[in-house]
Amino acid sequence: MGCGASIPNSLGGKGRKRRSVVQEVAVFIPTIRVPVATDIVHPLRGLVSKDLLDRLATLRSTVVLLAEDIYYGDISAVSELQRVLEEYLPVVLGLTAKESRLEASVQFRWMTLDDDRECCLASAWYEVLSVVHLMAMLALFEANLKLIPRNGQNGIETNVSEDSKKDVVDSLLRASGYLDYSVHRLLVQIPAQIKTTFPSYLQEGMLEAISIQALAQCVEIQLGLASECDKATLSVKRRLACEQVSYFSQAHYCLSGCDTSDSYGKKLLLFLKWKWMDAKAVAYYYHALVLDKGGGPNNHISAVCCLSAADDLLSESKRACLSFCLANPVTRVPPPWGVMKNMHKKIPDVAYKKFQIYGHLLEQDKASALQSLPDLPEFPLSLRPEGYDFPCTGSIWENVDCQPQIQSLMEHLKEDDEEAGNKMIV
Asked: Is 233 strand, coil or helix?
């Protein structure tokens, strides 16, 4: 029981073809883990009914089949896998019931798609957590697909409709809800000795960070929509930008107690640093415009200082973006989108113009200018993860007493013959 690297495809000859596509990222998916074929039949044979066993094995096999090539799939493939996972979850939940005494009966295997590393644990709770985690990653993956359509040209900004962006927000809130439930309702059900064997990407802090990251990217979408809306005031835009800074800061803080030494942790840290810098640059930009409307010399000095800070942060964010993209697994440098599509030109232009106008004020009062970079205002955070709760255990578990099932010799021999035949076909 435990985690380990899978056998390279070159040795086995039958392995899954390694993903070679360099992804473009608008919504970050830290890792996608998929189930690997697992022997469910032998550990549970004689303990549950044949119908239940067939149902459990068939659903998991379907999930394995659909998940193998999800990186190459489209939104319809994601939706189909999501549907089967939702069908599988109530059935596998029956294994976690205390009265069933089956929680540790099956060795469940999962693998990360980026590097084919496997983690195998004899725990139904591990299986349940992995299913919910995959549902969350699929929601993030779906959001990324909607923002970067597969038929778009690489590195070229694609036009995404307002309705699609609102759908992206729905997907992000759903992902945040799955992960929030995992942290506050699911992990507490899992024995401590099992959690100590979890891979790093299932740590509590990691799950919480990704949940909050999803909320931050919801605000990123909302801010992009507000920046394109003539009716949205500067105060509204500033508030959204400041909220985004707070969310990314919280997500980064959640990782402070986590092991982020592997590629997934390092990549997530770099992403959060990049997006925090973007968000803070935009927040200082809008804060400067609001201050500038005050009219007094001190307001103008503070506005110029905010714009200077925004310009510096923008330069740093470009370097942070490159560091993120080059970190393993390598991702393509995305074109600016949303609010950042215009900020790369607006911030330096406005900063230069305001300095030309008010630069003499800074020269007149250099001491004041050195102390005039104001703190960004703090606002109550407006978004919460979408509510989620476990489905009821599947009705197929009703009246299952998990006692050894009486099986005739003929039935036993028939099942063995069927298994032997299936192995020969494979």
From this structure: coil
> Shortest CA distance to 132 belongs to which of 264, 33, 199, 54?
33
Helix (H) or strand (E) holding 385: none
- What superfamily in CATH does domain 1-7+18-198 come from? alix/aip1 like domains (1.25.40.280)
Whether the Cβ atoms of residue 346 and residue 313 lie closer than 8 Å to each other: no
Three-state SS at 70: helix
How far apart are the C-alpha atoms of 125 and 198, rounded to whole Å?
11
Per-residue pLDDT of 248-303, as tens digits, reads: 999 999 999 899 998 889 999 999 999 999 999 999 999 999 999 987 888 888 89
DSSP state, residue 95: G
Which residue in the block uniquely carries the two structure tokens 């693998």? 111
Whether the per-residue pLDDT at 95 is higher than 70: the answer is yes
Neighbouring-strand partners of residue 2: 120
Tokens of 378: 């703090």
The neighbour count for residue 369, using CB atoms within 10 Å, is 19
Do residues 118 and 126 make contact, with C-beta atoms less than 8 angstroms apart?
no
Domain residue spans in the chain? Answer: 1-7+18-198
DSSP reduced 3-state for 153: coil
- The string of DSSP codes covering 332-384 is BPPPP-TTHHHHHHHHHHHHHHHHHHHHHHHHHTHHHHHT--PPPP-------
- In whole angstroms, give the CA distance from residue 374 to residue 290: 12
Residue 188 has pLDDT above 60, yes or no: yes
Tokens of 122: 């004899």
Which residues, listed in sequence order, are joined to residue 48 by a DSSP beta bridge?
45
Do 187 and 132 meet the contact criterion of CB atoms below 8 Å apart?
Answer: no
Rounded CA-CA distance 37/53 in Å is 15
